Amino acid sequence: MTLLDTYSVQKETEALFWEGILRNPLHRSFPDGIEDAARSISFSGSKLPFFPINWRYAESISALKAFQGVMLNVLLHKKYGIPYQSIHIDTDHAQLFLMSPAHPFATIDPEGEKIPTMYGGDHSGYDKFFPNLDIHHLAGPETPFIDIATTNIYKLGDGRYYHVHASMDANPSQKALGINREKYLGLPSFKEACSVFKETTSKHFAQELDTLMNDQYRQAGTICHSIDEFRASEQGQANAHVGLYEIHHHPSTHQRPAWWTDVTKQTSPTRPLFGLKIVDLTRIIASPTAVRELAEMGASVMRITAPHITDMSQLQLDLGWGKWNSHLDLRKEGDRAQLRELIMDADVVIDGYRPNVMKKWGFGKEEILEMVRGREKGIIYAHENCYGWNGPWAHRSGWQQISDAVTGVSLEFGRAMGVDEPVTPVFPNSDFCTGIAGAVGVLDALIQRAEKGGSFVVDIALNYYSQWLVSSCGTYPQEIWDDLWSRYGKFTFRSTDNMSVTIPAYTKMLSEKNTPAFNENYFEIRKNGALGVNVKTVKPILRFEEGNVKLGYNVGSRPNGTDVAKWPNDLMTEIIS
Description:
Elements: H1 3-6, H2 9-22, H3 34-38, E1 41-44, H4 57-80, E2 87-90, H5 91-95, E3 107-108, E4 115-116, H6 124-129, H7 145-148, E5 152-155, E6 161-164, H8 170-176, H9 181-184, H10 190-201, H11 206-216, E7 221-223, H12 227-232, H13 234-238, E8 246-250, E9 277-281, H14 286-296, E10 300-305, H15 316-319, E11 323-327, H16 333-344, E12 348-351, H17 357-360, H18 365-371, E13 380-385, H19 400-407, H20 409-416, H21 429-452, E14 455-461, H22 462-473, H23 478-487, H24 499-512, E15 523-528, E16 533-538, E17 543-544
Parallel strand pairs: 1-2, 9-10, 9-12, 10-11, 12-13, 13-14
Antiparallel strand pairs: 2-17, 3-4, 3-16, 5-6, 6-7, 8-14, 15-16
Helix pairs in contact: 2-4, 4-21, 14-21, 19-22, 21-22
Family: Belongs to the CoA-transferase III family.
Organism: Leucocoprinus leucothites
Protein name: CoA-transferase family III
């Protein structure tokens, strides 16, 4: 009998859930009762992985969703006094969490126009519902190849590899490298655009380029490290004590233990977070996912955006469920006053912008803690960054690809395919998984506030998840990976194959092999009251067997600036006017 005969994604997920999360020595302060609650979790699904990547994505996402379920179970027991609920996770279904914005099945008006939720050749149908707010035109079919190639991994003159990132505007990174964008706007292919960057980056050495990008131009970028190199780095060591998140208590003698304010006949185990108010200062994927997960459990969310701030409209449908959306221009004192008013009546604030951006406008960690100091109950302030909140790189800008590259995840993916070079893993795995970890951290902090009083700060970081993926989750055993890779023809991607290459390739592979990723049973037709149409999307991953908890959203996703920036009296109000 071989490992192929005995391997089980479900058994491995359960082991990871218990030993890699619940009993992980880096997680020292979980609420009491969590292991009792965890015994109500069960798993099913395909025994062997179907997602062709060496990292154990199936086990990672499934264990994290179990973690979310068990923390909610503890909250249900402590707040409502009900027994721990039986929660089931289909590990095949769970993997669709990583594909939800980009899945071909996801459509607006599925019974009618069937409008794709991700940009294709013609995105005019999507734009009717979500006007394109990508000010720098970085994420659409009209994006020039020179901009697409800006977010990529290139070999340097000293033989090292470096991940350059366009962030939300490719121009600053191109300028840092001395690339004249106008000269290359007409390039006819992605390959030719990559050649421009290859020629330029070959003239740089790793440390010099890292300083140029991060310190001089303040752009996201990183040397592609091995796992051991990152662990030995000052940044790696400064954050080695952190698990999936870190919570800091700010006690107060007059802020007594408290939950949020219940809404009569609506705050109940059925919608366990109903009445919880969250101010959402996030964009892109990781921190918006954390907020959306809390909204799915019943929380009310006010997302704050601004017309002059670029945003990825193509993500708004999937990541905007459960959120009102209001424009506030924080350059104006009147709008800052409105945001302060929202925060003063909120239980949670989540900040996902680059470190210190919100501090500039008076809404950083210290400012918000001071703002609520006189309240009778404290606040939960959560913030997410790339590198972690300790060490010399804590201030740096970063994205999922940067985290994958700096922690060694990208290099191990390349090596698994037989190339000794880093390759960015496909789909926004670390983004979505960081979002789940962030939501669990907020649930944990809410439980602690109800027991200890005061305020709590939740540190969330892409690297916290990536460190856990490397150290606790890991890659598939060689025999399992060889079988998995062989099923897809032993494809090979190279360092310059960014997600514009790999996502379409993976989607095609998963579809052609008729994998569970294309199982219609994992999708639902969901009403979107804000848009006035139905949407086909991935079902909630957690299944509460007794049916006492109903996951879903109080309101539908909508374009930026739809709502007035105030909390409505009725938290089921679809659009605030």
